[in-house]
Amino acid sequence: xxxxxxxxxxxxxxxxxxxxxxxxxxxxxxxxxxxxxxxxxxxxxxxxxxxxxxxxxxxxxxxxxxxxxxxxxxxxxxxxxxxxxxxxxxxxxxxxxxxxxxxxxxxxxxxxxxxxxxxxxxxxxxxxxxxxxxxxxxxxxxxxxxxxxxxxxxxxxxxxxxxxxxxxxxxxxxxxxxxxxxxxxxxxxxxxxxxxxxxxxxxxxxxxxxxxxxxxxxxxxxxxxxxxxxxxxxxxxxxxxxxxxxxxxxxxxxxxxxxxxxxxxxxxxxxxxxxxxxxxxxxxxxxxxxxxxxxxxxxxxxxxxxxxxxxxxxxxxxxxxxxxxxxxxxxxxxxxxxxxxxxxxxxxxxxxxxxxxxxxxxxxxxxxxxxxxxxxxxxxxxxxxxxxxxxxxxxxxxxxxxxxxxxxxxxxxxxxxxxxxxxxxxxxxxxxxxxxxxxxxxxxxxxxxxxxxxxxxxxxxxxxxxxxxxxxxxxxxxxxxxxxxxxxxxxxxxxxxxxxxxxxxxxxxxxxxxxxxxxxxxxxxxxxxxxxxxxxxxxxxxxxxxxxxxxxxxxxxxxxxxxxxxxxxxxxxxxxxxxxxxxxxxxxxxxxxxxxxxxxxxxxxxxxxxxxxxxxxxxxxxxxxxxxxxxxxxxxxxxxxxxxxxxxxxxxxxxxxxxxxxxxxxxxxxxxxxxxxxxxxxxxxxxxxxxxxxxxxxxxxxxxxxxxxxxxxxxxxxxxxxxxxxxxxxxxxxxxxxxxxxxxxxxxxxxxxxxxxxxxxxxxxxxxxxxxxxxxxxxxxxxxxxxxxxxxxxxxxxxxxxxxxxxxxxxxxxxxxxxxxxxxxxxxxxxxxxxxxxxxxxxxxxxxxxxxxxxxxxxxxxxxxxxxxxxxxxxxxxxxxxxxxxxxxxxxxxxxxxxxxxxxxxxxxxxxxxxxxxxxxxxxxxxxxxxxxxxxxxxxxxxxxxxxxxxxxxxxxxxxxxxxxxxxxxxxxxxxxxxxxxxxxxxxxxxxxxxxxxxxxxxxxxxxxxxxxxxxxxxxxxxxxxxxxxxxxxxxxxxxxxxxxxxxxxxxxxxxxxxxxxxxxxxxxxxxxxxxxxxxxxxxxxxxxxxxxxxxxxxxxxxxxxxxxxxxxxxxxxxxxxxxxxxxxxxxxxxxxxxxxxxxxxxxxxxxxxxxxxxxxxxxxxxxxxxxxxxxxxxxxxxxxxxxxxxxxxxxxxxxxxxxxxxxxxxxxxxxxxxxxxxxxxxxxxxxxxxxxxxxxxxxxxxxxxxxxxxxxxxxxxxxxxxxxxxxxxxxx
Length: 1277
Hints:
This protein is 58% helix and 4% strand. It is mainly alpha-helical. It is globular and about 120 Å long.
């Protein structure tokens, strides 16, 4: 400690010799870091003076002149002099005299501020910092002047005077910081529930586990008695108490020593920890917990140890099943949940508890009640976790993801820290992280970011790995090879060590995993084949202990490896002898894998055929659970095995039942005769026809072969289908339909083809406008309605027509009754639709919802099918569904249920997406960003977009840039696509429509700080927007004006758009919604100095705003009031909106953010002279501040809040005092000095400006030695 102090003094002496001002300017980072560690007392005054630039503001002789004059505040000053640091022996008569002189001089210099209680503590602190008392004598008179000019700099240049001016404009704002701190939920506050009140309110209530707080002083008024209590010191981040004697000073002045109970509590805590670690049975453990779980000394160490022991008992199979009914476990869960709420759990305890939950989940169902709270705590503590904790949490997330999907939300937080700590991981930690990454890659793609760091560490740690670690790493490498190719680097080292640890040590699962991985990796990492001989030698003897999945994997791998490792065939007989007895327990995938492998092995390993009969016996019952790949494997095996194992044909009906498009029945009504025609069978996904005889049942009931009629009708139908598909122009198509639409052979295929061709013409822009006047289309629509009524349209035709009508929207007359009938038919037949049709119908619903709301009725039926079929969708279909979900989320919220399924599959198929699909997905992700699942698709999209941006049309580029602006805060990686987009946009601006230009400018304003390159496109946008401003709708005009206000300083060319916008806005203000009006008024206030023409729009806006204020959101109201204050002198019409705003603000002040409140407070000060009624909202604003404090106090210190309520102590009584003295009178002086050392070197003006804006107060986390030694201090905002 002494060495550190001497070294710090040498550093500061060196800085002083070089010149503090020069050092601060040249090396600001080093200066700030050293200041935060504590400024030696002998240098503190000079450092503060330098940071405040007091010398720059000093004027020679002025201080003496100010001493000569009298003022009205002298009496108040004299009253407060003896109240300043009355118990501090260093603040004696000389300091009091200097305090009086400085306050008197300031009141004379700044009579608008004068003197207010609280200023005495600020000056008093500066005097205490002075180098020595001798400087305060006549010979040291200049030092008092220095103190005066330091105080002047604080008050006038750093705007601290706002706390003390008339009506206390700045004092009314700090309470807003409670709301800010409440919303921030910063780690500092989460680590200790009472932290906010401790540091900001100077009140500390001891609760076990509160961390990082050094004794503060509490001033409470209790029935006339003043109680001054120094709180106990709490060890930093440890949750244990340091013994501390507590003095209680009563009203009479007597002091008594409070008993020290910290040591007893610590002994009990240590004794309990030892007991838990030594227990040998679950019963013994539960007995100990039953007695201690509610004890005051029960802490996070006990939580960690208890859950760890329970998990170990479970892993060893020693946790009896009847322990589920134990009453102790719910008590333990409840205690832990309460500790989490009170922030009494540290990172280690939270990580260990979550790991244990994963182990216990199946055995202790009540554990699920605790998991949500644990997840929140893990999120908050991730940055504090060690390598082992991160590994355990990631493993737990992978293990619980299916039963507790919410666990996936912790993955990004863990992944953010794993790369930096991978070097500290041991062999098991690395293996667990790799295994978990493979398990989580689909559900949480962010996990892939940690793989390169893991892959870099595993090769140098393989020699210390156990056989299970090696097996897990190889298995994970096989799973991750496509998504994280870096993982292939670990294979050679794994392969080098597996043979030496496989013999007789590895369990069956390990052998199965290694063999399966070898089959998967053989092409990308051929070295993996070196482990196969060792595996082959051991598997036959371990096959009897393998479970169904392991047997299936081994047989599947044998089929894959037979050509590159022929010895693999030696294990087939052993596998073949075990599989028949375990086929009954196999799932659908395992059955299909075994059947496929048998077909592949039948010629080289005939024993494989022995497994076919038991597989055939179980496949029909599980075919319904098979995915397309499994069905495909079974169909292939059918063809391969039917000659050597004919019984395989028994599964054909079950497999064929899962095959789409196999014969359906069409009921047609033709001139009174009911025709029942069995449709032609369509080969699976091929579209080719099988000949089929058609029976005709006449009205009289006779049956005959409809050879002549059917063949003629069929020929006509086929000819018409061919004609429709071959047409080249819309006129040609309408001509064909004019002749055929009423023909008896016109059927659902023709309906589908006709509408499809019309839609294609519309998409290609070749459908003429006069098409809407054609008489053919009403006849076609009428025919479709009739066919729907007679149930003559199949599911696919209905879907195609609905999709086509959505494409044709606006080009042809809309028949809402037809859409209603189509939607009803789709709803009834949704289960018959394939993925293409489902995707099209959902897309059509999104397009048609505004003009035909009935279409929304079909959405629930569609999403019920999409959820289970998303895995079979091609990239375009996934893209369409995600785009539609974004459009439908407000009108049909159920659509959000399919987003997780879509988000799970899009990353794997993003590489195959065309530019339009990528653009749509990114646009939809921006709209759905509040759904955490959708953010998982963003990394895959941004990996593809840069390479395909050159092929994007203007709309796609505009959408991608807009989406990047929306996503930058929740998915910062999206900024990687911006350079590629802005490289393409300038060349395509001429083709952009008004909306695309508006979106690009809006996005540029949002991205200017995070992606400055975006400013390069602003001049080009500014050149094109004026030409198209007349075609812009109100939203686009509003966005452009708002963006111009944001860009005016960094891209002045944007001001070229102002004349065109100003010319259009007045005429369209009447159609603007409240948010657009608010944005325009706010932008006008920002632009008035650089583009005075903008003032021309104010009158039009002011005329519309009063009637729209009732529908405004809190932000809109605060923006308008702020803008009114700015515009009052140059555009007096704006004052017309103030009464309407004031009528709404009190009712919505409770929903305002800290920035909104700050804007309103500033506006009140500016408007009170020209619109005195503005003062009416002050009470509502102050109520919001106090409410925020009340909420924070109830969350962090509920007992103290109840005490205040009981004593009827109002917040205003003590809040003003705290803020007026900047806590100098409420915190121990050494602590105040440490705080100020950290605050002022940051730049006093910057710090106090933030207070004035009401954004944040500084919050500090101090080490337990800070007060005594000037130790390190961390500023947390």
